[in-house]
Fold this sequence. Notes:
Blueprint: H1 7-18, H2 23-30, H3 34-44, E1 46-49, E2 52-55, H4 56-84
Antiparallel strand pairs: 1-2
Helix pairs in contact: 1-3
Amino acid sequence: MPKSYSKEFRESIVELVKQGHTVKSLTEEYNVSANTINRWIKQNKVINVDGKNISYEKYVQMEKKLAEAQEELEILKRAAVLLGRR
């Protein structure tokens, strides 16, 4: 079972990386894998979309919602075609 880390701990590790600590030194000091730290860094990244800054995590959520909405739209289009034939 994977370890669970608090949001505060994850944010503090990302902040240490921003301050210049290496991922390797943090993995040794806090016993967290480099892959995990790199994932936290990626998730904490800020992305500029249409002049607005959003977190990577929020961006991924928005992408998922968009895909769901597009799928629902396709289903509704097919239903409209089928109902129009009657």
